Amino acid sequence: MSSYPGTLQSMLESYPFIAPSKYAGKLKGKVTIVTGASVGLGRHIAKAYAAAGSSVACVARREPDLKSLVEEIKSAGGHAIAIVADVAERGAPRRIVERTEAELGPVDVLCNNAAISRIGPISLEDEDMDIWWRVHEVNVRAPVALIRAVLPSMMERKTGIVITISSGVASMALPVMTAYASSKAAISKFHELLTIELKGTGILSFSATPGLVQTELGKPADALNKAAMDHPLLKAFMGSVSGMKHQQPDVLADVLVAMSADERFKALDGKFVSADRDVEPVLKEVEKEGGGRVVKENMYTITIPQL
């Protein structure tokens, strides 16, 4: 029997196992790309990697916010550059990687954080299908293209880590969020399968969910999203989680740094890592002979249990 019955403790704030002080300087000499870095989760992620010693290429569309982020990192003694780009634009992933390599060096860690959401029933009368597909362009096509752009150098050096921020909705029956949920399920499955293709290359592949975090992504950004928030199915769901506490964005950022600096996380290669739960018990379980329950029960993957 597992020594961790039931649900693992929900971590609302950073904790000793992933504490920034534990990994200070551990990524010195490394180069990290963080997309969607200008605000919210991405900003916290970029600062966390810089605090761990990595040089960081901060990528986003908002130039003023990027510049202030880079200045903040530099004022704290870190090293960062700003790259203004739309990750979903054709050719942008290659340009992002080329500029990073030219100014900082070969990429050691790619963190695909940039994402968008679309809230609304799947109905052509209510919404242009191009908007629905735009979610998949940003949330799936762009991170895959960025991964393809960093892989040649990583494979040549036999080292590297590629991570995409996914979401718990990938495995939930969440109403009127078909575009976002299906995109997150797709990218999580991509990372799982990519791990198989990269076996023996020294490159690690992860998707990670931050848990319930209040970000701009979760706020209705236009009339369509605001109207969809009144959909009875979504209102019922939101009511069911209204009393839940939000995780601090630093929790995800600190987990990602730990994943990139701690050799123990290799055991979770290809997995859907939940940053909103204590990760130490998960590592202890997967380190058991045969991978423990994590392998036996095919945990932390996108699966379809059957009788």
UniProtKB/TrEMBL annotation:
Q: Which organism is it from?
A: Friedmanniomyces endolithicus
Which GO molecular function, any one, fits this protein according to its record?
A: oxidoreductase activity
Pfam family example for this protein?
adh_short
Keyword annotations for this protein, in alphabetical order, are: Oxidoreductase
Q: Which family does it belong to?
A: Belongs to the short-chain dehydrogenases/reductases (SDR) family.
Q: Does the keyword Phosphoprotein apply?
A: no
Q: What is this protein called?
A: NAD(P)-binding protein
Q: Name one GO cellular component term.
A: membrane
Please give the InterPro entries that the UniProt record associates with this protein. Answer: NAD(P)-bd_dom_sf, SDR_fam
